Amino acid sequence: MPSDARAASPAARPRQGMRFELLGPVRLWRDGHELDPGFPQQRALLALLLIHAGRPVPTAEILDVLWAQRPPVSAPNVVRRYVAALRRLLEPGSPPRTPGPRLPRRTGGHLLEADPDEVDLLRFRERTREGKRAAATGRAGTAARQFVLALGEWRGPVAMGVPASVRDHAQFAAVQRELLETARLAADAALLCGRAEQVLPVLRRAAVHDPLDEPLHARLVLTLAASGLQAEALRAYDDVRLRLGRELGLAPGPELAAAHARVLRQQAGRRSAHAPLPTPPTPSNPPPATRPPANAAPPPTPPALTPAVRPAWLPSDPAVFVGREAESRRLDGAAGAGVVVVAGAPGVGKSALALRWAHRTAGRFPDGRLFVALHGSDPARPAVRPADALRAMLAALGEDGPRLPDGLDALTGRYRTLLARRRVLVVLDDAAGTAQLRPLLPAGPGCLALVTGRQALPGLLASGARQLRLGPPSAEEALALLAARVGAGRAAAEPGAADEIVARCGRSPLALTLVAERLAGRPDVPLASEAAVLRDTHGTLDALDAVREAFLGSYRLLPPEQARLFRMLPRLGDDGITASRASALTGLPVRRARLLLGALADAHLLTEAAPGRYTLHVLLRVFAAERAAAEGGLPGT
């Protein structure tokens, strides 16, 4: 690392007051003495507050980051205990239960106040901003120096010492992307001003952190060659080429291949081993004949200084995921369609399957992954508007707010133009319908939109989209899911109780997860006790509140006539539901009953087991009976 970067490194200078680090291990000091940030999850909370230093972080966002899966009921109280412990650590002189200047109370969230020079991430961001300003005004040498100083704050993987599931969250992945982007900018600036050796140490380190980032490795190849290390540059290219083929089954993309060809051309020209590659004239010192007048506008940012952003916006890979091998293979086969819809009943595991597949196949999409929760069936919040989703995705792709166009059509055009020649995976979770989705679908041939939803999307299917209807897992997979969450030994010790739990949950992954979370929190409680609870509450969803809420999300979207028929379906028993039987029950014409049953099947509140014959899942049957009782019987019958 250059001497000026070492001088700027936080570990190299005396510390007074508070100092925080998260660009590596999460650490903090007060008056030069290092403090213990506490348990890993408490460290994670500290790191999250540092990422947003000076801005409140909503409690819901904290819960989402600290608990990759559904947070336990006690999670808000746990967060309050963590905050109290951090307050005692950061404000030792403050009276108990009294907010101080570091952690002032905020309604619905928490805030950590810190000066920019106290946090390595804030110092990194300020240096990076200075570098970008210098690059934008043609001062490539100054830009390279500022970028290297910024990267001097980077000591290892972001937020080391916190749980892996937390570090995988998009909040921390975004910080890692900032570091890698600055490394690419540093290389561009150094190559422009002929100071490749200045950035080589930080560029080598960045390449280790992301061994499959083709734009980054292209810059490493060019920087090595410009430093007189042509042989090492060719070895670096061969290393990443072999890695791309072995891990992703891909050949190097155009940028990496062009860097390789440039090094080969230099060797073919028999230049000195120490002669740098040709670079554009230094913008800050152009030849006298072309020097601009003093009152001229500053030159635009060179294209090489603004490489495309590679978003990695996926939530964490599900910590527990069992089976679904056949469904995953079907997704593999359908991926060439450009749009794939994973559809199914509430709680069947659509989002988990989509995220597991997206993480497993991330290498197919080297230009990035985007994720948007559309809240199409969330009873607690309205569905996301397409324009809002586009603004969020454009921001993730590097498009700043002031540059965004107005209007849905213009936003859609900008979004599709950005993705036209890129390979990006776009996961659109819990879609409300075709109208919400269409503007969000990329048009590039290398992109894939992976959609999850509870509603039928006939417009997309008619346009060539592929659909995977997801049903409950097999009994064996459901049992394996329960065992994975409560412990294989514990499930094997009570096979009868485990089988009963699976049956009473109707093999629903959401229901099994709820039961398993209760059991995991009470390791001394036998599975037979939980089976008895489900048995005692038979006919209600009182032991499965989250399942009831998930079903409500779909039920509230039904038109009145469909909702009325759904409430009546439990009267038809288990012998199968047909249009003629529904007609006799409701007094509707057979043709109308057939249309309504089809609509309920499209909403995945019924399953069409055979043409014209439907079944009702055991938990949906209970929910329908609950709604009939709650809404005062069966209006209109």
TrEMBL record:
Region spans: Disordered: 91-111, 262-310
Domain of life: Bacteria
InterPro entries associated with the record: AfsR-DnrI-RedD_regulator, BTAD, OmpR/PhoB-type_DNA-bd, P-loop_NTPase, Sig_transdc_resp-reg_C-effctor, TPR-like_helical_dom_sf, WH-like_DNA-bd_sf
DNA-binding region per Swiss-Prot/TrEMBL record: 10-114
OmpR/PhoB-type domain segment(s): 10-114
Transcription keyword on record: yes
Sorted UniProt keywords: DNA-binding, Transcription, Transcription regulation, Two-component regulatory system
Cross-referenced Gene3D superfamilies: P-loop containing nucleotide triphosphate hydrolases (3.40.50.300), Tetratricopeptide repeat domain (1.25.40.10), Winged helix-like DNA-binding domain superfamily/Winged helix DNA-binding domain (1.10.10.10)
Pro residues composition bias: residue spans: 93-102, 277-305
Family to which the UniProt record says this protein belongs: Belongs to the AfsR/DnrI/RedD regulatory family.
Protein name listed in UniProt: OmpR/PhoB-type domain-containing protein
Source organism per UniProt: Streptomyces asoensis
